[in-house]
Design a protein that fits this description.
Layout: E1 2-8, H1 19-23, E2 28-37, E3 40-50, E4 54-59, H2 66-73, E5 81-86, E6 89-90, H3 97-100, E7 103-106, H4 118-122, H5 137-151, H6 167-180, E8 185-188, H7 193-201
Parallel strand pairs: 7-8
Antiparallel strand pairs: 1-4, 2-3, 2-5, 5-6
The structure holds adenosine-5'-triphosphate and magnesium ion.
Adenosine-5'-triphosphate binds next to strand 3 and helix 2.
Length: about 200
């Protein structure tokens, strides 16, 4: 498995809305990160560093340990050894809301509830309430519209049930959900099935 920086956000300057915030974001580092399943070592002593604003690509053949590495970063899996830091803060195991504000992950197996609307899915567990303590559908819709405007996501109705969306639209909603928590680090996992087939046939 190899990690390559594919872009660097240092060009953001004063123009980007979050450029000011970004300069104060902490770096994400891992040291000696290790995870095995039974006798299989999935992630072997990874030392990695991502500076604020950087975009890294994680490349490797099937079973190389990419998903395991991301799950360790997101707190979905517990490392056997090694450490993950966001700035000075050591990140432990656990993938709740608080943790997803630090490292959020968009998994290729989507986590959306098909029978919930787009807005309900994005704000699940942090729904805005109305005066009598029920979920405020109006504020839910507005928060979703505001988020979509900020992320430049167009053409997805916040009130539509997720099961009616295309796969591409679901990925956008999943990404919006991850970004709704204003995470300091976001990771995506995308499968290149072709590579797998090529490897199997070759
Ligand atoms: N929950 C698990 N239980 C047992 N073995 C696992 C588990 N998760 C991953 N593994 C094993 O760990 C290794 C790394 O798997 P991982 O899913 O991280 O690879 P990957 O790089 O994401 O592969 P792919 O490109 O197929 O998504 C593989 O040998 C896999 O079989
Ligand atoms: Mg994977």
């Amino acid at each position: 498995m190899s990690v390559m920086p594919t872009a660097n956000g240092s060009h953001a300057g004063e123009n980007g809305a979050s450029a000011g915030d970004r300069s104060s974001l902490p770096a994400l580092t891992t040291s000696g990160l290790m995870k095995s399943f039974g006798g299989v070592i999935a992630v072997n002593a990874i030392d990695f560093r991502a500076e604020p604003g950087q975009i890294h690509g994680l490349l490797g053949e099937n079973g190389a340990g990419k998903s395991t590495f991301i799950k360790l970063l997101a707190g979905v899996l517990r490392a056997d050894a090694g450490e993950i830091h966001l700035g000075d803060e050591a990140l432990g195991y656990g993938a709740g809301r608080a943790r997803s504000r630090q490292v959020a992950a968009v998994f290729q197996e989507l986590s959306l509830v098909p029978d919930f609307t787009v807005a309900e899915n994005i704000w699940i567990g942090q729904e805005p309430l109305n005066r009598i303590g029920g979920v405020s559908t109006r504020r839910l819709r507005r928060k979703t519209r505001d988020l979509f405007a900020e992320l430049e996501i167009e053409g997805i109705n916040p009130d539509r049930e997720v099961r009616l969306l295309s796969v591409a639209e679901r990925h956008l909603v999943e990404t919006a959900k991850a970004l709704a928590g204003s995470p300091q680090v976001l990771s995506w996992m995308r499968q290149r099935r072709r590579l797998g087939r090529a490897r199997q046939s070759g």
